[in-house]
UniProtKB/TrEMBL annotation:
Region forming the signal peptide: none
Record's keyword terms, sorted: Coiled coil
A single cellular component GO annotation: cytosol
Residue runs in coiled coils: 114-141
Species assigned in the record: Rotaria sordida
Pfam families named in the record: Vps52_CC (PF04129)
Annotated InterPro entries: Vps52, Vps52_CC
Protein name as it appears in the record: Vacuolar protein sorting-associated protein 52 homolog
Length: 237
């Protein structure tokens, strides 16, 4: 069986480690702790040397070595301190149980509030979308009304002109019926009557129903004028 050679390192890496006994004690501690190794694996010499090299760089280990402290005892002290701190931590955790429970309740309450706010924001977003659609619909409807208004104004203008051309005012009837044919007013109304008769005749070809309301009046006035002229001619000749 091959003999194991003592582990040698420089003074910087090993500090004040001067004896093989300290080395063997450190190896024994690492063997017991089995650091970073599965339970079913054994430590090799190379593994121990590597971990010794690594752990010797630790400040607390260097202090322990320089003070000629028993590493096994020092390791047990560290384990006891760790257990004490672990128990203290557990006690602190148990003592803060109520606070932790209250914190959990507050977090749950905050989650519910956030969920409610999210629901409200989604509803608000949906309402905004509906309002946007309604505004778009109103804009479209307003544009349609504007077009209808312009069309009505255009038709109203044309109808107003047609009505003015077709309507027989009472003043025209009175002048034609009562004023002598030699008067200027009569001649002016006679000219206007001729224009209206011509216009109504043109519109009658387009099946304008309104023409039927004035044709009878215009025809009577036309006959009246013809009778007047025949009467005048009979007096002259």
């Amino acid at each position: 069986m091959a003999t194991e050679e003592p582990f040698h390192t420089d003074n910087t890496d090993l500090g004040d480690l001067e004896s093989e006994q300290l080395y063997l004690e450190a190896a024994n501690i690492l063997q017991k702790l089995q650091l970073d190794k599965p339970v079913d694996e054994e430590w090799s010499l190379d593994d121990m040397e590597a971990h010794i090299e690594e752990n010797l760089q630790d400040q607390f280990v260097q202090e322990a070595l320089t003070q000629d402290i028993d590493l096994a005892q020092y390791s047990e002290q560290i384990q006891e301190k760790l257990q004490i701190h672990e128990k203290a931590f557990v006690q602190d955790f148990i003592g803060e149980t109520n606070n932790i429970a209250n914190l959990h309740i507050q977090i749950s309450s905050c989650d519910k509030i956030l969920e409610s706010m999210d629901h409200m924001l989604r509803n608000f977003q949906n309402n905004l979308a509906n309002i946007s659609n309604e505004i778009r619909h109103l804009q479209q409807y307003s544009a349609e009304l504007n077009i209808k208004k312009k069309n009505r104004e255009l038709v109203r203008g044309q109808l107003s002109q047609v009505v003015d051309e077709m309507v027989v005012p009472q003043s025209m009837i009175q002048i034609i019926m009562d004023v002598p044919v030699t008067e200027r007013q009569f001649l002016e109304q006679l000219h206007e009557l001729s224009h209206k008769i011509k216009f109504v005749k043109e519109q009658s070809f387009h099946d304008a129903i309104a023409c039927q309301d004035v044709q009878e009046v215009l025809e009577k006035l036309r006959i009246k004028v013809i009778v007047f002229f025949f009467f005048i001619l009979s007096l002259i000749f």
